[in-house]
Batch of 2 targets.
Target 1
Amino acid sequence: MNWSSYIKGFKAYLQLERSLSSNSIVAYEHDIVKLCQFLEIKKIELSPEEIDIAILREFVRWVSELGMMPTSQARMVSGIKTFYKYLMMEDIIKKNPSELLEAPKTARKLPDILHVDEIDKMISVIDLSKPEGVRNKAILETMFSCGLRVTETVNLKISDISFIEQFVRVIGKGNKERLVPIGRVAIKAINFYIENVRNHIEVKTGSNDILFLNRRGSGLTRVMIFYLIKRFALEAGIKKKISPHTFRHSFATSLVEAGADLRAVQQMLGHESITTTEIYTHIDREYLRDVITQFHPRS
């Protein structure tokens, strides 16, 4: 049974109506291709209209037996559900067989975070006598101040920063735009970097508005940010598993612990679902233990 026309229409829907990134579209397409492979191997010749919940459940068991991790299974189930929602919207099917399809339960791993003193340690090992050191300090301050993803950091433009109002315009996943406040410390580090380093670099064509540049005048890569953060953590003697995303986790955790509204944190992080943000209400067990010790009458 040829599913190619359905997949083609699904991809167009994801791109034009959902405005998803190319990586997300490829991932969704892979989910449906995997389902097609299952049907072919099992010699099940059915069109999308003829698939029922029993076949979808058998498919999930099949990918599980192949060794697919529960988190990947859950993401694949989400892709299948999105595909069938699209078919319903297009009136290709009258009943959605994926409605009762359940994803395997996955443990929510609590990520490592950095406390302010640890971030200060990392910044303290940066050699500020070198131009790249001034830039690197500005990068770390910006990531912690705004909770940016690594891609959002390397793509950050000077024109995206409102230095007076102290807001940053961020283009996140799926080209979704959000406004995030930026603190005075980060603003100061960025201004110092622009005035003393960036203004003296011969900027390559196409990078004129990119904030963080390498010495050749081009934008930085994601890999470069990963390398810098790993290096500074090592030099600062921090033993935790650190990545650029750790700064994002630390940003969110510090806000939630200080009593920030979860919806506001969700908006600043650019999370589509509040459920994703809720992990930060459970993140710092030591912090919670300290609160109990300090305030509970029986502690």
Note: The first strand starts at residue 161 and ends at 162.
Target 2
Amino acid sequence: MDKKIGLFWLRDDFRVIKNYGLAEATKNHNQVVAFYLYKKSVFKNQEAQKWWLSKSLFNFKKRLSDFNIELEIIETDSFKTFFNQLFKKKDISIYWNKVYEPDYLKFDNYLYKNLTIKNISFKICKGNTLNEIDEVKKSDGTPFKVFTPYWKNAEKYFMEKIPSKEEKIKKCLKKKNYFQNCIESKKILPKKNWFKNFQKLWTPSEEIALKELHNFIKNKIINYSDGRNFPNIIGTSKLSPFIKFGQIHVETIWNECMKARNKTIGTSKFLAEIGWREFNLTLINHFPHMLKNNYSKKFDKFPWEKNIKFLSSWKKGLTGYPIVDAGMRELYSTGWMHNRVRMIVGSFLVKHLLIHWKEGEKYFRNCLLDYSEASNVAGWQWVAGCGADAAPYFRIFNPILQGEKFDKEGEYVKKWIPELKNIPKKFLHKPWEHTGEKNFKLGEDYPNPIVKHEEARAKALGAFKQI
């Protein structure tokens, strides 16, 4: 055993199972301290995630104390400044798991170089993916730009790999504190109390993530292929925030799905969603310009419109299109939105209102508990038509038909827009056609549509033709 102290830099890996860096630290050291660097600027526009992070730190600290591992939270303005101080220490070894975002991987290289020079031992371990981001490429060595061939290759590559040896976390001799001036997890909570409702809906912990996964595989995966399209039922796994914060490793999800007896089309559809996540991670690393700009350069000439009033109506769920408004209210209230509805509200913002996808990306970043840089940017560019393997520009979701098809009985709309609960089903997705209700006044109880679908569609197609 190494006499030094093992330091584990905790990032998006709030788990004990398949936490490669932490397992490695406990294998080599009798004393291990986990530390989390809270950088305010990172979470400046991710208010909802401050809540999830704060709770994750609180719950994981308790879990780690079973292993005699202390978890310390350090607030810092700069990772570089923090590590430059740490480089002066002689009594440590450092371990961490990769986060597959360009800035983090670049910083890994910085640490690699400096820790080597300073002769401090360290180990960088695999993060929360099935494959490393540069392992799956086309036969000519270039990255895939289309999902289906990417996933076919990625799945095969993962299945043929020798599974990584399951290193378990060992219990340390005794708990130890290492850093000065640590902060409490509750200091990270958002200032506004809007997240109060999250507490009733979510418990950010590894135990709950595993429970949700097993429940999903047992009861819902069989119907996932269809069920995932209907926002009025819980047809999806709702694991996305747990995956983002690494409360569960995607290898665990894969293995549990493979163990299940009832493998169906639902299983492969569900695993393909993990495939999309991996595909998006490879995209942002091979084409980092897409994090700030259009993946497809020809969209740089697109005539976007600035309309603060429309943007505000969209954010508040007051566009006059019930399925769009229900989605936006679900997002604000729960920190999550059904995937089918994400596509509908995204298409509405970009194509009906001609507002830049970046505005939607920014708002989702702030409100989503499952926000991840790769999936959010790629998702918005997919909807806008400017991403890799994107929806064609002429595909403009009709919010009325989408509502009628995927919320036939109107249960989802009525849940989030109670002011429409007495409207007959026939008019629920187009309340402006309903004139016979004495107790309901369009424009007062619920807004008129801010744009007319047909006109907006024609205008959008005109704008797309320009490019």
Note: Residues 94 and 437 are 67 Å apart (CA to CA).
